[in-house]
Amino acid sequence: MSGIANTPKPPYYAVIFASQRTEGDRGYGQMADKMVELASRQAGYLGIESARDEQLGITVSYWASLEAIKNWKENAAHQVAQERGKSEWYESFALRISKVERDYFF
């Protein structure tokens, strides 16, 4: 889960997830890795970019359509991770969905 995602020509969608973590790992790292692996097998998944330290995390996942994003949100294993996030891992978070209309790479 490193590097810049190799996305197709726009348009496509970005899900931007920013979070403030609670203290300690309590399985967070393992679950995050599992979610990336699971998401990568979902129809419409295009890639992911993520950066985090002990408190702040920002993950941007890229999707072919709003339907693909909805299907990922409704994935049973992802829903378990979402609930654990709310109850154990996050002090706060924000999720934003954006349509990418242009991109540039260097």
Structural description of this entry:
With 106 residues, the protein is of the alpha+beta class. The protein has a domain at 28-100: Alpha-Beta Plaits (2-Layer Sandwich), CATH 3.30.70.100. Helices cover 32% and strands 35% of the residues. The protein is built from three helices and four strands, in the order βαββααβ. It has helices spanning 28-39, 66-73, 76-89; strands at residues 12-21, 45-52, 56-63, 90-100. The protein has a four-stranded antiparallel β-sheet. The protein is globular and about 40 Å long.
Short description:
By secondary structure, the protein is of the alpha+beta class.
What is the string of SSEs from the N terminus onward?
Answer: EHEEHHE
CATH topology of the domain at 28-100: Alpha-Beta Plaits
Q: What structural class do helix, strand and pairing data support? A: alpha+beta
Largest sheet: 4 strands, antiparallel
**Given the C-alpha coordinates, what overall shape results?**
globular
Unreliably modeled segments: none
